[in-house]
Amino acid sequence: MSTVFEPTLSAAWARLDAVDAEVYARTRNHLGAGATGLGPYLTHGLLSSADVLASVASRQPLQVQDKLVFELGWRAYYRHVWAHRGAGIGVSLHAGPLPDEAYRRALPEDLRQGRTGVPVVDQAVRALYETGYLHNHARLWLASHVVHQCKVHWRVGADWLYGHLLDGDLASNFMSWQWVAGTGSHKPYVFNAENVARFAPEAWHSPGTLLDTDYETLDRRARDPAWRAPQAPPGVAPGLSEPPLCSHPPEALGFTAPQPDLVAGREVWLVHPWQLGTLPADLPADAVVVGVAVADFHRQHPWSERRWHFVGQRLAELAALRWFGSAAELAHALGGARRVRCVADPHLVPWLPEEAAGVEWAPAPSVFLTVARRCDSFSAWWKQAVPARGSVQDTLLQSG
């Protein structure tokens, strides 16, 4: 599957039209074969889970228990955890195999430059930098190596990966790293060279490396504070240049500071990086569409230029006005509008609360039922979010 992602609805739907749930279930763990490639479009709201399920179910029978539905369920479950824990998803949920203090707070340079000499690691870093995308299995391998072989704290790795991924979602990213680290699961996730050879192309295979061992040894290393993967000496092999991460959009994308006079007394519809789908059909003819990016968020979570361009190009199609400013500046500019509406997203809502910015938040579309009480396991959440079995059409699409 192509790893070039165009920020257009036509590109999103072309990928969706190619999804086959049966093929996905058989091949989803294989690099280059099973991934749907829908991540950037789901994360940034060009597609919704309802779009995915409705499209696939219109072409083939789709059951609630199918792997594709489970995969969408994991995204929704991580959002559920985020809704209950807030910023708490960014710290270890419980103790892992080692205390937090046992882990380093910086990535080794040979890993960051993709020259560790372990092919699966170096290929993953190269793919991340060159495409802004990684197959989920490759993400797990890379995270496992960072945490358990290099003894780097999971949050350091999660922030690094998030910045480069086109589909970086804080909930899915942080919670997946915690699952690998063993701070959000019952044991550390480890993998070996045999696993890579089974699921990855030959260039990724890693025989004769530190991964070419049994799982007992790998688990023992994960629990040993003295174990660290040996680093490649500087200059032994040419390294990759890491793309810079930017806390502000490139000038070419045409963002400006918030301008209150352009929306004073007007009805405003906000579009933002996590809701880049079609505009509402009921917008008044004189409504002003404003694209926003909150500087406070991006100072904490900078993006690659690739991701800024992915988001910025789509925002330009939707909104002639595109503002980049602090939460306070945006709230001030929007305060003079007659009405401000927007689709809610947890990446954005904390920065523009209704009492400060006057934004009316519409709920984001979902096919899963809202579970009021926090569930600390996917299975507990699933039983309440999907209360019945059977076809997707009968259960999820109608109830959602």
From TrEMBL:
Keyword annotations of the record: Chromophore, FAD, Flavoprotein
Residue intervals of the Cryptochrome/DNA photolyase FAD-binding domain: 70-198
| Essential cofactor(s) | FAD
Keyword Flavoprotein attached: yes
Keyword tRNA-binding assigned: no
Could you name the domain of life of the organism this protein comes from?
A: Bacteria
Task: Spell out the family assignment given in the record's similarity comment.
Answer: Belongs to the DNA photolyase family.
Alphabetized PANTHER family for the sequence: CRYPTOCHROME, SI:CH1073-390K14.1
Designated name of the protein: FAD-binding domain-containing protein
What organism does this protein naturally occur in? Curvibacter cyanobacteriorum
